[in-house]
């Protein structure tokens, strides 16, 4: 079988492609969709001369067990859902069933499908809507400042440590898009993001250290508690020349977290005299972490902005770490719950001067 599709990657027909089949090259099944992907299967009825002249609705679904339909997504006939790699999509409700894994996307909802632009965009990974045709030009600059670490410092029966990390990332993207009138336009995207994290920890345990010849042996059996603050923010702008559409906004959060972990770790350090010392270790650590985040988001188009402040969610994670030799890995489970909606949710006109400046910059770049 061969698929026939349209410009939005929807499978519109199934064509017989078996060379020995009597219906080679004929369309054996057609598909129609509403804007958000609810499918209608059509079967053909042949007349006396054999060509298909009428297409009727098949209420039983695909006779060929076809599961690739709307936007190229995989269809589950039992549940009526589309499975799109990271999430499941409900075409009747026109929404994702799981929240966006990128936390706070450039949208007013964590469950919205392509921000309502379902006739021109698709989301093949369940993470970000894409509408580019052909290759995109992408420039990404990312820099993580050297971490500031203090400790361990003796404190009573244990030790204290402190760490501060800061990072920044800028990204620009330009690609060609197909406009509704059939012409080709350009889509410009730009964003800049920053993050900062400060953490303090307290370790209580029994240490063992020994050295002989060119070998050092370190071992630790204990428990560590830690807590900290984390903040992250990102500003983004998007402009399309097709309809002079402009969107920009900000998303970010600040959160506090605390955790505890315990285990046993051992390390052997071999002094090689030349080059860095060789280190080998074995051990296991188990722990858990809880975090409360307060999120803020600003989403704007050319006419109106919407501001959400004070959205609260809770994250919990249980994990275990294993190290053997130079190999190490981490397994874990994570849960997220929405505790409260925005404390303040308001809309106001988009600043005309800012809109004009962004449009002028995009047109000059074009």
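Sequence proposed for the structure above (366 residues):
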């Amino acid at each position: 079988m061969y698929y026939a599709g349209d410009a939005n990657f929807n499978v519109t027909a199934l064509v017989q492609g078996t060379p020995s089949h009597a219906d080679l090259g004929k369309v054996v099944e057609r598909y129609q969709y509403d804007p958000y992907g609810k499918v209608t299967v059509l079967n053909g009825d042949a007349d006396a001369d054999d060509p298909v002249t009428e297409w009727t609705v098949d209420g039983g679904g695909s006779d060929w067990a076809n599961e690739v339909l709307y936007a190229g997504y995989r269809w589950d006939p039992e549940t009526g859902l589309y499975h799109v790699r990271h999430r499941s999509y409900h075409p009747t409700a026109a929404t994702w069933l799981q929240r966006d894994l990128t936390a706070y996307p450039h949208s007013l909802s964590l469950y919205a499908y392509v921000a309502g632009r379902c006739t021109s965009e698709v989301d093949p990974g369940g993470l970000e809507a894409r509408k580019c045709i052909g290759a995109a030009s992408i420039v990404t600059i990312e820099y993580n400042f050297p971490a500031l670490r203090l400790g361990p410092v003796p404190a009573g029966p244990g030790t204290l440590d402190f760490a501060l990390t800061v990072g920044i990332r800028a990204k620009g993207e330009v690609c060609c898009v197909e406009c509704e009138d059939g012409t080709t336009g350009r889509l410009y995207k730009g964003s800049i993001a920053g993050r900062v994290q400060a953490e303090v920890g307290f370790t209580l345990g029994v240490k063992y250290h020994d050295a002989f010849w060119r070998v050092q042996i370190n071992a630790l059996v204990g428990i560590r508690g830690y807590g900290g603050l984390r903040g992250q923010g990102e500003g983004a702008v998007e402009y399309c020349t097709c309809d002079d559409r402009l969107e920009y906004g900000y998303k970010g959060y600040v959160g506090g977290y605390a955790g505890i972990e315990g285990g046993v770790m051992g390390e052997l350090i071999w002094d090689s005299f030349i080059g860095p010392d060789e280190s080998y270790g074995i051990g296991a650590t188990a722990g858990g972490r809880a975090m409360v985040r307060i999120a803020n988001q600003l989403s704007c188009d050319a006419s109106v902005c919407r501001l959400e402040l004070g959205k609260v969610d809770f994250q919990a994670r249980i994990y275990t770490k294993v190290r053997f030799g130079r190999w190490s890995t981490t397994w874990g489970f994570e849960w997220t719950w929405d505790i409260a909606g925005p404390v303040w949710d308001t809309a106001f006109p988009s600043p005309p001067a800012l809109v004009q400046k962004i449009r002028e910059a995009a047109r000059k770049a074009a």
